[in-house]
Structures are given as structure tokens and as C-alpha cells.
Specification:
alpha+beta, three-stranded antiparallel beta sheet
């Protein structure tokens, strides 16, 4: 793999061009990281609307037909349904861990087994999320690749 960086004051914003024959796992990981840095999501809190970058988001949760976005210390409302969030963020380092939760893989500190085939995901902020057994294998695969 080669990396070329061209710096010129004439550029208004950075552009990333990837030229490849085949996208392998390593290249896909790089693409996912770039997409994560470029994407932001409109959220609201106390009537104020702002944009939150994906790297700030710990997880999404759907409760009573509303989607909430959790950062390290704050909770925001999001106008998207959970399936819409999943479509928008694609493969940007997030994984569904239950019917109502999508977690940021980069924010998981550890995963440990619990009873009944479920797992406990401990996040960087100390929060614990239950991983439904249906989603364990996909989460473990993504967690190991990160």
C-alpha cells in the first residue's frame, strides 16, 4: 500500500482518493475510519439542535419509538429511527447489540460473557450494555477487527 499526500494552499478542503484493484479487510478498515471522521448526525437537547460527530457517540438506543444518542456524559434526541441510523452509518465502526441498541465499537473497553448466552459490553465511560446472544458473534468479529 502506498500513501501520497499533496499539500497546496489552493485546495479549499481535503480530498481523499483511493485507487485499488480490490478492497481487502485492511483497506475497508481505513475506509470505515475515514467515513467515521467525516460523518456527523443532527441531534437535539433542551430545544437546541446541533451536530454530533460519530467519534463522539457511544451508542444509539430506541425507547418508546424515539431514538436517543449517548455521548460520554450527555444524552441527545435524534429524529431518525434506529434502522435509519443503521443505514446512514453503514460500516462506520458501529454494531447492533440488541433490537434497540447500536454501539460504537471503538468505545467498547471489554466484552465478557454473562448467563444465558448474553454478553456484557463495558464502555470507556464505565457504562454496561447487555449484548443479546443473537448479536454476539457479529459483535465479537467487529470488536476483534477494530
Amino acid at each position: 500500500m502506498k500513501l501520497f499526500i499533496e499539500q497546496d494552499d489552493g485546495y479549499r478542503e481535503p480530498e481523499i482518493h483511493i485507487k485499488c484493484g480490490l478492497i481487502d479487510a485492511d483497506l475497508q478498515h481505513i475506509i470505515d475510519e475515514i467515513q467515521t471522521l467525516m460523518f456527523s448526525l443532527p441531534v437535539s437537547r433542551d430545544g437546541a439542535v446541533s451536530k454530533l460527530s460519530l467519534e463522539e457517540i457511544f451508542y444509539f438506543e430506541s425507547v418508546d419509538e424515539r431514538t436517543y444518542v449517548y455521548s460520554q456524559t450527555e444524552v441527545y434526541a435524534c429524529d431518525y429511527k434506529l434502522y435509519e441510523v443503521e443505514e446512514k452509518i453503514g460500516k462506520c465502526g458501529f454494531a447492533r447489540i440488541s433490537k434497540s441498541v447500536i454501539v460504537n465499537i471503538r468505545k467498547i473497553q471489554m466484552i465478557r460473557p454473562q448467563l444465558n448466552g448474553r454478553f456484557d459490553a463495558v464502555l470507556d465511560n464505565g457504562e454496561h450494555l447487555i449484548v443479546n446472544r443473537h448479536y454476539v458473534s457479529a459483535l465479537k468479529e467487529k470488536f476483534v477487527r477494530r
